[in-house]
Design brief:
The chain is α+β, with helices and mostly antiparallel strands and 115 residues long. It has one domain: 2-Layer Sandwich (Alpha-Beta Plaits). The protein is built from three helices and six strands, in the order βαββααβββ.
């Protein structure tokens, strides 16, 4: 099973443009990590941001966690971007996918992965 990182944050006022550039750079870099699975970004109506990133295993997650550009971005984020954040790194215990047949992205396939 994969490793899932859930990163919740709130930005300080006035940093959105600079943050977006750094976030795009990190998104591009993480995609190049062997073992990267996927990532999603969400912004709630109250301004909280959520990033979910999945890695194939702990080793690939550790590669990203130690990446020098990622470490620099983390420091810069604490110093300049974030008013608050909360991060959880978890072992995925169960994974299921359902695609409804006839829907634009649906294949009609259901897959359950359990360890």
């Amino acid at each position: 099973m994969s490793i899932v990182t859930v990163f919740r944050s709130r930005l300080r006022e006035g940093v959105e443009e600079e943050y977006a550039a750094v976030a795009q750079k990190m998104s591009d870099l993480v995609r190049a990590v062997d073992g990267f699975v996927d990532q999603k970004f969400y912004v709630a109506s109250d301004g909280e941001r959520v990033t979910i990133v999945r890695f194939r295993d702990a080793a690939s997650h550790a590669t990203w966690a130690r990446h020098p550009d990622h470490l620099d971005a983390q420091r810069h984020g604490r110093d300049h971007f974030y008013s608050w954040y909360d991060i959880s790194v978890c072992d995925e215990l169960h994974h299921a996918v359902f695609d409804s047949p006839g829907e634009p992205s649906g294949s009609g396939v259901r897959r359950d992965d359990q360890s």
